[in-house]
Amino acid sequence: MRLHDAALAAGLDWSAGHLVDGRRVQPHGEREITVVSPRDGSVVGLLAAADRTDVDQAVRAARLAFEDGRWSRLPAARRGEILIRFADTVAAHAEELALRIAIEMGKPVREALDVELAAVAGCLRWYGQLSDKLADENPASPGDALALVTREPAGVVAAVVPWNFPLTMTAWKLGPALLAGNSVVLKPAEQTSFSALRLGELALAAGLPAGVLNVLPGFGPEAGEALGRHPDVDVLAFTGSVAVGRRFLGYAAESNGKRVWPELGGKSASVILPDADVAKAGRTTAWACFYNQGQMCSASSRMIVHRDVADEAIAAAVEEARRMRPADPLDADAPSGALVSEAHLARVLGHVRGALRDGATLAAGTAERFVPSEALVRGSYLAPVVLTGVTEKMSIAQEEVFGPVLSVLVVDSTDEAVRLANATPYGLAAGLWTRDLSTAHTVARRLKAGSVWVNCYEEGSMAMPFGGTGASGFGRDKSAHAIDKYTDLKSTWFQLEPR
Ligand code: NAD
């Protein structure tokens, strides 16, 4: 099946222009973002990058929309209806959006459709359906008084997001921020701005009032920083690298003290104990490291396996690496696609070569680019890599690679496995494989991670919060908890007349 043919025939419009106050506008910024498809190295389109003036205008539009109550003062259930319609509109345009994402950042179009777009629609719908199920608090008070604790929308939310799950990360911010009544300025990653602009248009088509969602493509150090330092932005929700997340904390401290929610990188471990279903554990660990070309914050990039079962787990991982050979992202049955860019491919290859210099061994893959076909010779592909003989102090065991590179570390006890799993500055996610119930509970508690998956990896639902500890940041996306990020608690005390 060639899923993309119909959409290509319909002709995707890649025309530029930002989305501010409900209209596509030409920005003032003079610099251009050149969007290059990592699928084949072709230029997808040019996009004017927002400068400080553009950021000011977008924040002003968001503030106006917030203050006049066109969204913030709608009944929550009405906001919920519009979010649900937004979800339906995304679902109706899922093929087109999936195709855009596949072209922009190289993930297989089938994955973009079945996983990413399903998650986007699912997230928006989940928050929409939550709208009439939230309750404020009425704490105990004396007979001559009434106490209320209510949630108030924070105001203007800026969301700065990455390219790896471009629309899912966006929906994880938009769902709770919009449900709570805020207005949003979204700065997508440079690589995936066209799909973000299209998402903004679909929100308008679904009935979101003008100015409530503004989409502003731009370079991080220019538009991103301007949002981070803007005196009229109340909340900055960020997903991306540790280095940039920490910059945002600095921008906030040096400007208006806005609250910043950093959701950052990881170096997650998948711990395989001897009593596990080892073949499944090895296969799933490898899959969760290679999925999305390894460009996953929660990727299980370290397999920590007991010596007694290491050979079996490694064999399963190597088999999975062979199965996940990259192919044209536009082929509906591609097991994996391209990395986001040539620069990123070079970085990932640098990690692999560094590990080999440090003494690791290749059990699968090579330290060279992969070429799926003659037509894609200028694309940015890497066949999955399994590295054995990795030890704790090697850079490959410590640094986030953000590519399809699995490091195998062999241990001799459960205690050593836990110590190693926790021996990085990160704390985003962890996997644990054991059939023993007590071991599962006690070890899961000891793993330093915001999410622990026992006998699985990457499972969950919208009801489960997602985020990390330590260097992985402290924000939480998804679930009702995410609403806390975008609201202020207000305590109101009513003194009653004696009767
Ligand atoms: P990145 O930090 O380079 O960029 C993320 C966003 O920040 C982009 O929109 C970019 O334009 C902007 N930006 C870059 N430099 C900036 C600056 N100086 N000032 C302000 N904004 C700036 O990250 P990336 O390469 O796009 O994404 C990969 C990272 O995201 C990985 O570290 C990954 O682990 C992380 N991530 C985390 C989660 C999570 O939920 N914890 C989810 C997905 C990705």
Description:
This protein is an alpha/beta fold and 499 residues long. The chain is 37% helix and 19% strand. It is built from 14 helices and 20 strands. The strands form 6 sheets. Strands 13-14-15-12-11-16-17 form a 7-stranded mixed β-sheet, sandwiched between helices. α2 runs parallel beside α8 (220-229) and α4 crosses α5 (109-130). The protein is globular and about 75 Å long. The mean pLDDT is 96. The structure holds nicotinamide-adenine-dinucleotide. The site of nicotinamide-adenine-dinucleotide has 29 residues, from α8 and α9.
Topology diagram in text:
Layout: H1 4-10, E1 18-20, E2 23-25, E3 32-36, E4 43-48, H2 52-67, H3 76-92, H4 94-105, H5 109-130, E5 145-153, E6 156-160, H6 166-179, E7 183-187, H7 193-205, E8 213-215, H8 220-229, E9 235-239, H9 242-254, E10 259-263, E11 269-272, H10 278-290, E12 302-306, H11 310-323, H12 342-357, E13 361-364, E14 385-388, E15 405-411, H13 414-421, E16 429-433, H14 437-446, E17 451-454, E18 466-467, E19 476-477, E20 487-495
Parallel strand pairs: 6-7, 6-9, 7-8, 9-10, 11-12, 11-16, 12-15, 14-15, 16-17
Antiparallel strand pairs: 1-2, 3-4, 5-20, 13-14, 18-19
Bound molecules: nicotinamide-adenine-dinucleotide.
